[in-house]
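Input:
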Amino acid sequence: MELTKKISMFGRTHALEGEIDDFLDKLSQCALLFKIAIKVYLNEGCTDEFERKLQDVNKMESDADYLRRAIETQLYAQTLIPESRGDVLGLIENLDQLLNLFESSLWAFSIEQPDIPEEFHNDFDALTDMAVLSVETLVLASRAFFRNIDAVSDHNHKVMFYEKEADKVSTKLKKAIFSSELDLSRKSQLRNFVEHIDNVPDWAEDVADRLAIYSIKRTF
Amino acid sequence: MDISILLFLTSGLFLGWALGANDAANVFGTAVGTRMIRFSTAATICTIFVILGAVYSGAGAAGTLGKLGAIDALAGSFVAALSAALAVYLMTWAGLPVSTTQAIVGAIIGWNLFSGTTTDTNSLVKILTTWLVCPLLAAVIAMGLFKLTTAVLSRVKLHLLRTDACTRLGLLLAGAFGSYSLGANNIGNVMGVFVPSSPFIDFEIAGLFTFSSTQQLFLLGAIAIGVGVLTYSKRVMMTVGSNIMPLSPVTAWVVVMAHSLVLFLFASQGLESFLISHGLPSIPLVPVSSSQAVVGAVLGIALLKGGRRIHWRVLGSIGAGWMVTPMIAGIVCFISLYFMQNVFDQNVYAGGPGKAPVEMVGFSSPEIPFRRPK
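Output:
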């Protein structure tokens, strides 16, 4: 009986593997949508197209939340990977936080509709690129954690690199904002939006650091 | 059958219970300790396969133990098994993995000393050498198996969840193999001392095969082991797993496989006759300590990893336990034999004073020529 249960467990395992992959797909797609949404905002302002992208991110975040809960429940209900499930749980929840950051950032754009002067567009664009690259690389590192533990460090160091680059761009951008002729209130508002985007690579780096530890723990 | 015979067998059953309580942890301890397999599943599989191993393949290793000191009186067998069981129980109670093999050898030597029988040095040397070889062989097998397993897992790049499912299945199968090997190799420790005075008679089952008296004795012992597994092994299982070194589930599988292979090598009559028929040096059929095999396997892997995470203090206490076990068993046996003979007026060796509860029909002790003249 236990043997049949074990064999059927391969089926359940397969389904759960699919759910984890789906969750990571959602995160990656959310990052790409975020990038498009920021570009739309910078070029066209808070248009219907931007709102549609926001709704897409919103829906994707909800779907990812549902997947996260399903994954966590199955890991504990079926007592799977007892040695690593705490780490997997931590990883999934921290990755989910990135989805929340994308969503809250776009909501802030939608609600406050900041007027971003043209001269800052390139740097906002570059900062968004770095943020999205850091998340996409983190998704690769996370996939490697599940399938090819040796490759985690190959991706992780790139996450660190993109975070550093994002820091450089955000610092430069903040300096430019505060040296401009804008009102202090607008300067503060724009600084907040820089930080909204910059929070993404910062968090991605934190997750990558944890992932490095989880990987060490997983070596045979 | 005389009721007193069954009474005398109870010490063997007690020893079997102690072996089950203690040694099942070597087979399933890591799997249960790391929650990869539920205790109830582990205990059930362990019990079934211990019985199969003991009844089907138990005769080989039991024979060597008989040569060390063929206890030729039922009361003597009772005391020897009881002393060994007490030694094992004490160590189990202290939460330390202990060797039933060492306990019973200590008890047999205690009986030899009491009865004036010269210990067969050939058998003793064979057993002691095997005790040294056993952990070394387990270490070497574990190192090779660990290298192979990690190489395969790195190459096939299984998903974490798939690796987990495969490891669970692997631990279950390795546990079943380990339990079979444990039954085959260690049943001699439990019931070996009763073989010369077995109260059972051979009978045929449906004219297909003969269920020998020894097999019946081993079945009884194996059931006692099973009861030990089911009733008392959980505590040791929970403590033994990561005591020497923290083990990952895959490493745990390697340890159980190395342990099981070593026990199987020292118990398989089939392998022995295969080696002999091909002109190869044969492996002696000797009861070996499953605890030593596990410790050897864990150490082998630890050394492969640089030896940094070994808990040397725990290892030291296990080593000390191994030294102390045969001594306790031997001393307890010697003293108990004195009381059994002089207080309870029982015959504890052939030709000795006291009443004999069973006639030793057809038993010819190979140790008689070694007996000191009175």
